Amino acid sequence: MEKQSSSERVRAHVFITGTVHGVGYRLATWDKANQWGIGGWVEEIPDGRVEAVFEGNKELVEAIIRWCYRGSPDAVVKTVTVEYEKLQGLKDFIIRRPSELSIKNEPKDVKVKTINILLFVHGVIPLNSKFSETKLYDLLWEPVKKQHKLSERIDDIISVNWGHYLADTEEDRLDEKLHKAEEFIANQLNLKAQSQKITNNSLQPWWRSLLHPLQNLIWSQGIGAAIYYSGIEGKIALQLAVYSQILDLLEKYRHQIERNLAKKEATIKIRLHAISSGLGTNIVNDFLHGLFYQTGNQSNHNPELDKEPTIANSPILAEEKRETVERYLFWRTATQKKHLEIGSIVTMASQLPLLLLSSQRVVNTLANQDTLSIDEIGIPEQTQEIIWKVFYDINDLSAFPISSLFGGHPAIEDIAIEMSNNYYNYPNYWENEVIHTHVAELLNRRVIS
Q1: How is domain 9-95 classified at the CATH fold level?
Q2: Where in the numbering of this chain does the Acylphosphatase-like domain appear (predicted)?
Q3: Is 95 within 8 Å of 128 (Cβ atoms)?
Q4: Of 119, 280, 367, 441, which residue has the fewest beta carbons closer than 10 angstroms?
Q5: Beta 93-95 vs 76-85: how paired, if at all?
Q6: Residue spans of alpha helices (H) in 125-173
Q7: Could you tell me the fold of the domain covering 113-167+227-446?
Q8: What is the pLDDT of residues 58-79, one digit of tens each?
Q9: What percent of the chain is modeled with pLDDT above 70?
């Protein structure tokens, strides 16, 4: 028999048995099929089975059939029977409700619109960098958005700026003062001038020639900013700057979400796709943890894990920006009610393993020889699909893989890349073509409508 092309379109008629009624199996199937661009339908049938038809790319149809063996989190699947049939040209995927069944408290048609929001959060921008955060984000987004029609499928973009002094602002934010402080220290120390005072001769130890580059590296790599974020005042200042910018954009969707919460129904949901680098990775991780940790497995079984102060209950923050606190608390409620979810995460040059040690909650977890729970940042524990891609240059002193801290969870993929070993060329990650390819592929899978 001639081998079929993976690009061939096929139609699969599938029957699933087991505990598959009343456990969200149809909705999960609808979500997965729409996510992968598969046409067809799914319905519950009176004999206790779920029936589905999938039409689309052969490789994707086979993938969703494999997924059917797992299904929704509460399902217990016994068998999956498949028959291939003649294509009927189905493009959309719907939930069918047979007339024989009277299903209470469920809408007749699923009309939930997903709002896909792309979030960019940069790391430390070096003092001598000519790149603004906007130009930095464009290095990645311009080539990525041309693939898979992503420019048409992303509804909103949040381009965050923090720590990089903006001359046109009326009043310095707290985080902008960090940039000025670091610049002042660098000028006062004048490391280059100090090194020139040392008489060059062959008797000097070999390692002395490394001191000046390493000292400059401290500032170019933003170690000062990492120390700032490790303290309570610095952490609040940066969180205020980043969180308020994210919440400002989300505010436009708040009224509709509030109506959904009041009616206990969903007409829209927010799917957040976060791309960050360096210290920005830690800020994004803390943002997500604050939203999702109450639904995490570890916190459910160990209330002690909930005691770490977050932006929402910090007394310092409450005095500084009550509006940010109120907005953040609202979106925490929205995440618990499934109105805001994680679409995908991309991190580059992550310092997360280092900065996590500033949290007593994390220290306690790791000291007990336990790994972190991935669902505390919004990624379902049971998922087998890659949702979080981590890029690190093996020559970068402050970039680390992450998956081992989360028990090697299959939702995380660590990707080692090699770039120019130039710590002053900060845009390297953002303009790397290998990263562009991976990001486009990830977004194509995880952006749904």
Answers
A1: Alpha-Beta Plaits (3.30.70)
A2: 11-97
A3: no
A4: 367
A5: unpaired
A6: 133-145, 150-153
A7: Rossmann fold (3.40.50)
A8: 989 999 999 998 888 888 888 8
A9: 77
